[in-house]
């Protein structure tokens, strides 16, 4: 073979190698970029082992219990009279819940969640990836303390109980409050979940819970909610994160 032919073959081989390297680089760079956006875990070239929904796609509905009760629609007119919910020492339930809800909204938005902050009136057939209604309790016995939750009895997502359990575990750790065991019928059959009777309700395919942050009638609970609403918000935020991290 002539020297010129050998040189031509070498150049051709070099070009093939360079082109192959370029394609390999494009392939791996593309996978890295795709993984960053969609959180795709790739352990072998061309083999996708798991796909996680991007956190940016998750929408959370946070309802402030009793906030703007006077604006409830006609179908819920009987609830308008309960303007503030629980009240102790001129401290109202909706104001306490609203403060925690605002801080929770801020924390979740920093982590790229989309958040709707809602009053007592829920949009018709409201849909989200998760929904939490925040309240604060009261009792004639000031020794009664703790937080509690219950999931929607009309849930069709199959995830509401797990959502509530994640919130409970995280809130317990961050608040230092105990778990109250008594669940009232008003909680269990919360109007915002009752899509069979009302229009302004959460869609049953949305995991939904009603969450009592603590007792305003109890000194320990009240001081915690007034002095450390950020801890209450963090407890809920971490619970929400865990719920989506393990779905």
Textual characterization of the structure:
The chain has 247 residues and is α/β, with parallel strands linked by helices. 40% of the residues lie in helices and 18% in strands. The protein has helices at residues 3-38, 93-110, 160-175, 185-188, 219-227, 229-245; strands at residues 40-44, 47-51, 59-64, 87-88, 91-92, 114-118, 130-137, 148-151, 208-215. The strands form three sheets. Strands 6-3-7-9-8 form a five-stranded mixed β-sheet. Strands 1-2 form a two-stranded antiparallel sheet. The chain has a two-stranded antiparallel ribbon with strand order 4-5. Strand 4 (87-88) and strand 5 (91-92) form a beta hairpin. Helix 2 crosses helix 6 (229-245) and helix 3 (160-175) packs antiparallel against helix 6 (229-245). The radius of gyration is 26 Å and the shape is globular. Keywords: Hydrolase, Membrane, Transmembrane, Transmembrane helix.
């Amino acid at each position: 073979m002539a020297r010129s032919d050998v040189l031509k073959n070498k150049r051709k081989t070099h070009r093939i190698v360079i082109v192959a390297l370029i394609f390999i680089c494009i392939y791996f760079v593309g996978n890295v970029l795709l993984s960053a956006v969609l959180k795709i875990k790739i352990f072998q070239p061309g083999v996708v082992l798991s796909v996680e929904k991007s956190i940016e796609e998750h929408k959370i509905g946070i309802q402030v219990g009793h906030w703007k009760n006077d604006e409830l629609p006609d179908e819920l007119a009987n609830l308008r009279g309960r303007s503030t919910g629980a009240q102790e020492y001129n401290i109202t339930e909706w104001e306490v819940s609203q403060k925690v809800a605002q801080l929770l909204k801020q924390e979740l938005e920093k982590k790229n969640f989309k958040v709707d902050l809602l009053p007592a009136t829920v949009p018709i057939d409201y849909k989200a990836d998760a929904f939490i209604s925040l309240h604060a309790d009261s009792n004639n016995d000031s020794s009664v303390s703790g937080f509690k939750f219950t999931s929607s009895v009309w849930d069709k997502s199959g995830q509401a109980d797990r959502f509530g359990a994640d919130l409970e575990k995280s809130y317990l750790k961050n608040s230092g409050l105990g778990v109250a065991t008594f669940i009232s019928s008003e909680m269990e059959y919360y109007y915002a979940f009752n899509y069979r009777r009302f229009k302004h309700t959460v869609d049953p395919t949305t995991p939904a819970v009603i969450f009592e942050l603590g007792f305003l009638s109890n000194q320990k609970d009240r001081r915690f909610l007034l002095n450390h609403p950020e801890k209450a918000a963090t407890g809920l935020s971490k619970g929400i994160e865990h719920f989506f991290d393990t779905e």
